[in-house]
Design goal:
Elements (H helix, E strand, L loop, with lengths): L12 H6 L1 H8 L3 H13 L4 H13 L9 H17 L2 H19 L5 H10 L12 E4 L5 E4 L3 E6 L5 E3 L2 E2 L14 E6 L4 E5 L5 E4 L3 E6 L7 E12 L8 E4 L3 E5 L3 E6 L5 E8 L2 E5 L6 E4 L3 E6 L4 E6 L3 H4 L5 E8 H12 L3 E3 L7 E7 L4 H12 L2 E4 L4 E4 L1
Parallel strand pairs: 3-7, 10-11, 20-23
Antiparallel strand pairs: 1-2, 1-6, 3-4, 4-5, 6-9, 7-8, 8-10, 9-10, 10-13, 11-12, 12-15, 13-14, 14-17, 15-16, 17-18, 19-21, 22-23
Helix pairs in contact: 4-7, 5-6, 6-7
Length: 395
């Protein structure tokens, strides 16, 4: 909880960016912090626009190594604010470009100037809220399309057109801007899933509560996307353009291959499981060690001690979700319920007495939540208690 929330009443956008409690909310969300900020917004809705602007700027400056010092962030933002006050439109354009370039140089940034510029201008919320019901795709020019189907198919054609569930939106890029890099953002709420086909033929399955940032087309000698959450990748082979998946903690380099990445910000572990091909994984830090995976192996990054290791696994346990079911083998019941909570977008909790209970079996995600929970309760001898806000499993 806040020590004194009244201090925020006279905050400007730049004040929020410099506030450590605000930065903790954006970069290291937990339940207590989220509840505190939600209460603040409910009580003082007039602060919403400033807070959204601050979120967007911070998220725009997120590099591959996600820990940005307060000093660096303050310097870059102050340049942006100062340029708005003292320069014309063309000079603002140049200052923003320089600011983003500095971030890229210092932290091998994964977001470009265009991403920064578009986010600052569009005020698009890039954090998944608990109340968000529809999926969104935010295009490079700030255009937002929403979709509410449980399973959504998004395709970018080689001509630059965009299709959602076979409906062409005709959002192509002008020929004069073909060589410029624009970032698109897909935001999937809890309870939804999306299948994406990029212009190069790469297929991506994006799981519930996940986000993906990617360029409109891969013009450079690399292909790079940013992920928060979980996704399964089927990469179109191209030896001249290696493919990179960037998460908050990891950089994953692949060629033509199939693999699953689970990197939810609230989870203590980030896992990458390889089905086909080969990949290398390293932390988003300069001079960090890398490990290489062969099919049937999984890398595990522990956020608490920053360790990175690998082990042999049954890959179906980690990839079955794209086929509509979940498979478990002695999985902690709390972990099982967390996955179901994301998939069905319902509050599901385990009583503290079953924190160390495990579950083995197959859960069909085509069934409704009650049937799935009945399967777990029968196999584990648990009771299901439901109230207006949450479902609780007890011994």
């Amino acid at each position: 909880m806040f020590r004194d929330f009244r201090k925020y009443l006279n905050y400007s956008t730049e004040d929020f960016i410099k506030d450590q409690e605000f930065l903790d909310w954006i970069n290291h969300q937990n339940t207590e912090i989220r509840i505190s900020w939600n209460k603040l917004l409910e009580k003082y809705p007039e602060l919403k626009n400033k807070i959204e602007d601050a979120k967007l700027i911070i998220k725009s400056l997120q590099p591959e190594e996600h820990i940005v010092s307060d000093e660096t962030l303050n310097k870059i933002f102050n340049k942006i604010v100062e340029s708005k006050k003292t320069t014309g439109k063309r000079d603002v354009f140049n200052i923003l470009k320089i600011a983003a370039f500095v971030v890229v140089l210092l932290f091998i940034g994964s977001l470009t100037y265009w991403s920064l510029r578009n986010k600052i201008q569009s005020k698009s919320e890039l954090i998944i809220s608990e109340s968000q019901q529809k999926g969104r795709i935010i295009l490079y020019d700030g255009t937002i399309y929403e979709f509410d189907t449980d399973e959504t198919r998004i395709k970018h054609t080689t001509t630059g057109d965009l299709l959602i569930n076979q409906d062409s939106l005709g959002h192509s890029i002008s020929k004069s801007k073909k060589n410029e890099l624009f970032m698109n953002h897909i935001i999937i709420p809890f309870g939804k899933r999306t299948n994406i086909i990029l212009a190069d033929g790469t297929k991506i399955w994006l799981n519930s509560g996940s986000q993906l940032s990617y360029p409109n087309e891969f013009n450079d000698n690399v292909r790079k996307v940013n992920l928060v959450g979980e996704a399964f990748f089927d990469i179109k082979p191209d030896e001249s353009k290696p493919f990179f998946v960037i998460t908050q903690e990891l950089k994953i380099k692949v060629s033509g291959t199939r693999f699953n990445v689970s990197a939810y910000s609230e989870d203590s572990l980030a896992q990458t499981v390889l089905l086909e091909g080969n990949i290398s994984i390293e932390r988003n830090k300069l001079f960090s060690n890398k490990i290489e995976l062969i099919p049937g192996e999984m890398s595990i990054f522990n956020k608490q001690d920053a360790s990175l290791r690998k082990e042999n696994v049954n890959v179906e346990l980690y990839t079955s979700w794209i086929d509509g079911y979940l498979l478990f083998n002695n999985e902690l019941t709390t972990s099982v319920l967390k996955k179901l909570e994301r998939f069905y977008n319902r509050c599901i909790m385990a009583d503290h007495q079953i924190n160390y209970n495990t579950f083995s079996g197959k859960l069909d995600l085509k069934e409704d939540l009650n049937e799935v929970l009945n399967t777990i309760s029968f196999a584990s001898s648990l009771k299901i208690i439901e109230d207006d806000t949450c479902i609780i499993l007890k011994p």
